[in-house]
Amino acid sequence: MTDAPHILLIDDEPSLREPLAEYLVGQGFAVTEAGDAAKARTLMRDQRFAILLLDIMMPGEDGLSLCRHVAAQSEIPVILLTAKGEAMDRIIGLEIGADDYVVKPFDPRELVARIKTVLRRAARAPQPIEDAVQGFEFDGWRLDTVKRRLTDPDGALVPISTAEFKLLQVFCEHAGHVLNRDQLLDLAHGREAHLFDRAIDNQISRLRKKVEADNRTPRLIKTVWGGGYTLAARVRRLASPDSP
Amino acid sequence: MKLVQRLWPSSLSGRLLLTIALALLVGQLLNAALMVRAQREQAMDRVAAEAAVRLIAATDRLEQGRPLRERMLGRMGRAPGLRFRRTQLTDTSPITPQMQRVPGLVSRLDAILPSYGVSYRRIEAVTVKAPPRARRMERLAAEIGGRNDRRIRQLALVAVERPDGRWLSVHVPVAEASGRIVATIIAQTVVLYLVMLVPLVWLTRRIARSMGTLREGVARFERTQEAEPIEPSGPSDLVALTRSFNAMSARISAMLNEKDVMLGAIGHDLKTPLAALRVRVESVPDERHRSRMVASIDDITRTLDDILSLARIGRTGEVAEPVNLVALVEMIAEEFHDLGEDVALADAPRIVAPLQLTWIRRALRNVIGNAVRYGERARVSIASTAGAGSGSVAITIDDDGPGIPDDRIEQMFEPFTRLEASRNMATGGTGLGLTLARAIAHQHGGSLTLQNRRGAGGAVEGLRAVLTLPVG
Predict the structure, then answer these.
(1) In this model, does residue B388 exceed pLDDT 60?
(2) Residue A91 parent element (H or E)
């Protein structure tokens, strides 16, 4: 158990913190609990944690403030626990450096899945250059990776599902490369995602419906026979989503 | 009555100006009537005086035995067409019963004649149409006398029955009411209008502007529910009203803020124990029990979210952004497909509308969710109706369910209303979905309506929900 990922769980409410810690230990993690931000800061000085689970609403210093501190001082990934599911919180949470969030009351299995995804991402790219990238632009379309939104060449928002968003992000990050279904599954959803190849085809087809002028003769997301798919457009990385 | 309603202006300044203008006009008309009356009295006095002088002179002559008629005009008096006897002595009265009597003249003469020694049995006075001769004579007399204000159309004929039974009568010209009075009154009215109405227009415009500012402020508050003090201006009443409104809106805004804080706290305080419960449920070994408990927790969470959202609508803090509405509906349809639901979307061209994305998504999910839940499937179509500058888009959701009794349709929008209480558990809605969806539609300046779809025979074939949203 020595190499079990060490989680620092910060929540002021023992009624949630204690059973959650118990559950996570049961799932093979090492868990240290903290009841407030001050305790968490002390603990972080002495120990190294793989990931932080951070409640937003706490008396004293709140979760957002601590998250900002952690993001500035270290590379420890943070998942926010929030009681409000509103868009504002999501944007603020992700803009101040959190890696993900879950809305209370969450499905503990989903939380575990997200912890694993975040940990894997952190392990694969300790400090990737992509962190500075806040968006992509291709053929007039903009993909804002901070606010997780897609806007068309005329500036109108095009709502897409999380799966489609991740897929498009993978295409942008690997523009010009041909990606097969396994690679797409792995990059967009993680190795443990219980998805079949057909699901990727389905998502590609849905994505095409949204970004292609004519989805029978795709111009942007092209099928490569025997290989997979590729984004056939010049992709520009944007340091800020609003930059020209 | 309808015409009056149409002509009656709706604005304060319009009403004020029209009322004052009408009042002035009535005043001026009364004034004109009084002046005309005074002029008439004056004319009557003059006629009476002239008749009296003639009668006194004629009586004197008769008593002195002199001839009745003078030859003042000399040869001209004999000229044909100018011969017109003003004073006559006849055996019978020249006045016939058909003639127009003038009692005012009789009473005036009754007051004058006796004191000049004229004795008579009775006086009769009438007006007669002036013969052309008389008109010409009067015109001539007017020209000689340098007067040009008298146009003579009528003569007063005064007949006095002398003590000897003979009648002494005189013709006296009656001056026409001068048209100048009407001209004077009109000129006066115009001057009054200019003097009064110009400053009034200026004043009412100023008041109207102050009221306009206030009205805009109230409308803005209604829209944003954020208190922005309005700069008081205009007369003191309006200033006081504006101050009161500012105080009221500040108080309401503070109350709403308090409410938001309270709702946030309630949400947090309920969701934390729910989260704890949700985690503990994982340790229930019986899979069947566990899944039921999870479903119950999900139900509570959904209801809680709906209640919190409903309470927060209007102060969502989310700004409207241009959204490709067709892509949004497409995405929601795909979500339902993934859950194995039957949602068909008709092809539609790209339509962009300013929307609060998360809220409209929620409204659409609720309405389409109802269709698949109660009506087996949803057929969604999107159509934009072009308008000058501001069109709208209608999203129509048809299902194949049993519909809703017509008299209960409006009721469905009330919170916690469900068509059949018994279906509660089976279908698992909160009873807030439509309430929330309609509130979201209204928040966007749109609407949400339900109606039964009927076949050719009038039988209900399903329910149709139409969500209308403004575009641009």
Answers:
(1) no
(2) helix A87-95
